[in-house]
Each structure stands twice: as structure tokens, then as C-alpha cells.
Amino acid sequence: MDKNNRSSTYVLKQAKLSNTKIRKSILEFLMENHGPFSIDEIHKQIFDCDYATVYRCIKKFEECAIVSRCDFGDNISRYEYKDLNHHHHHIICRSCHKISTVEYCFLKEMEKMLTDQGYKDVSHALEFFGICQECQN
Amino acid sequence: MDKNNRSSTYVLKQAKLSNTKIRKSILEFLMENHGPFSIDEIHKQIFDCDYATVYRCIKKFEECAIVSRCDFGDNISRYEYKDLNHHHHHIICRSCHKISTVEYCFLKEMEKMLTDQGYKDVSHALEFFGICQECQN
DNA sequence: TTTTTTGCTGCAATTTGTTTGCGTTTTGTT
DNA sequence: AACAAAACGCAAACAAATTGCAGCAAAAAA
């Protein structure tokens, strides 16, 4: 367990999920790499693991709020580790599909308005789309 | 053409799309009804029209920025008419999946930051998730 | 209007992303 | 170590989305 209590094993235990080899691998991959990844990309990284297992693991992770799902409009679900200390969004180039992170976020205020209206456990998903500088040439 | 130049025919012409019976029907349905609709829901509304055609029309509409795509996390794409005079977002109940609109939006400022960084044609997609009051009982 | 061209549509088949059932293996617990 | 509960691999099933093609309707040209 690392000095920040942020090892994959710790996170799994915290979420009351059993600590299997594959879950550990998937979670480690997601924790060590930033971008959101498709099921396909995750599957490529994990040695000797079935697609169904990737789907099942990611679904569990999502239920436990360990990872969050991103939709970039291409009918491919992507997932990333939900680092609570590092809330951010994405900006995706409509041309090359490069993904960068958007660090700032004004949405906490909006969420507050919604809880004031009576909603509970409010969260949000936000993606930006644009044409990046390289693609403009 | 209505007094606001917002008839389906006008919008199609504006977008340089040919004005077929089906496209007109789909667009009219989307313009007259608020919520985002799945391909299935749209298909049900259009008389004597193939699924493939709905997909193709909606894809065209999306390319021309007439409609925008929403992702509510259930792997079903939903689409709604992009009324430029009525920019808004959604709040979806995680329990009953009821969709309400969120009228306010602070994101124009964020988009501006991104264009200042060099991105072009920036847009965004934002959904909120929460448990609505009815579901809390 | 008539002709020509362009592009939309229906149908059926296909591709692709995701889920499920089931027998076997692994994990956590006593 | 023994056992129950849960996870895994495999293959089949499912559902959303896409594609090829022949026929047809809409737009442009004559």
C-alpha cells in the first residue's frame, strides 16, 4: 500500500470488492494511466483475460464509483479511474479525437442548486468538443 | 414557414438537406417535443419508416448540428432538437430516469477559456444525475 | 414541364458492442 | 484444510448501429 493509501488493493478493499488478479490489474492500469479507456483498450492491457470479464469488472467498478464512464459521441464507452482529489473534464478534438483534460470546473455551484431543489446524490458528466490547433492547419 | 422562420422545411433548407417527407416528419417531431428521444422512440412516431432511415437521418441532422446527442449512461443514444435560443442541460433521476431540464449554464465562460487556448468550434455536452424527490420516498 | 442527375429509402444482411448461462476455478472465511 | 460465495472463461445470445444494393423520390438542368 503506497503512502497515500491509494494502492489498487486498498481501493478494492475499501469498495468491498474481492481482490482478484484481474481486478487488480485492471484497476492498476486505470490508476496509473490518465485518459479514459475503451473496453477494448483495457482488454489489450490485461494478460489472459476475457472480454466478458473486463465488462463485468468495469461494471462493478462503476457501481462502486471507482471508475466513471465517459461518452465521446462515438458509441464507444470509455472509463477512467475516479480520483476524488482530481475532479476534471475533457476536451476532445472533433477531428483527431485527441483528449485533453480541463482542470477547472464551475459545476459544484450548479449541483448545489439541484440539491437545493430536492435532488439527492447529484453528480454530473461533462465533455467538451472542439478542433485542436494541430487540426486547424 | 412560421413567423419565427423555424419550420422544419426552413431548418432543412438552412442546413442544405433535401426536404423529404420522412426528414420533415422526424424533424417536426423533434421540434415540437422537448425531451431527448431514442431512435426507437423516434421510429415509433414516424409512419412507415425504416430503422435504417431513422439512423441515417439523425446522423445527418447531427452532422449539420440540427440535433444533439445525449448520453444518459444506459447505452442508448438520445437526440433532441438543438434550439439555439434555448440552451439547456438535463438532470436525470438515477432511480426512475425521469428527465428534467436545467436552464442555467455557466459553461460559456469555460468554452471561452478553451477557445483562448486555441481550440476552434468548441461545444459541450453535460448531464446531471441524481435521485429525484419522488424516488427518495 | 420533361429529362437528367443526385441522393434518399426500404430491405436484408452484417458488424460491433455488450450481456448472459453454465461449468470450472479462485477467493475469502471458518 | 474445508467450505460457501463469488469470479472467470467460453460460447452463445442479444441489441444497437451500419452497410450494400436496387428502386424511387427530390432537386437541378434542359
**Assigned CATH superfamily of the largest domain in chain A:** Winged helix-like DNA-binding domain superfamily/Winged helix DNA-binding domain
Helix content of chain A: 25-40%
Secondary-structure element pattern of chain A, one letter each: HHEHHEEEEHE
CATH topology of the largest domain in chain A: Arc Repressor Mutant, subunit A
CATH class division of the largest domain in chain A: Mainly Alpha
Low-confidence stretches of chain A: none
Shape of chain A: globular
Identify the most extensive interface between protein chains: A-B, 36 and 36 residues
Radius of gyration of chain A, in Å, reads 17 Å
What does this structure look like?
Two copies of one chain form a homodimer. Chain A is an alpha+beta fold and 137 residues long. Chain A has two domains: 8-81, Arc Repressor Mutant, subunit A, CATH 1.10.10; 89-136, Dna Ligase, domain 1 (2-Layer Sandwich), CATH 3.30.1490.190. Chain A is 36% helix and 24% strand. The first copy, chain A, has five helices and six strands; from the N terminus they run ααβααββββαβ. Chain A has a three-stranded antiparallel β-sheet with strand order 1-3-2. A three-stranded mixed β-sheet of chain A has the order 5-4-6, covered by helices on one side. The longest helix of chain A has 13 residues, at 51-63. The first copy, chain A, is globular, with a radius of gyration of 17 Å. At the A-B interface, helix 5 and strand 6 of A face helix 5 and strand 6 of B. Strand 6 of chain A pairs antiparallel with strand 6 of chain B. Chain B binds a DNA duplex (30 and 30 nucleotides) through residues 18-23, 39-40, 48-53, 55-57, 59, 75-77.
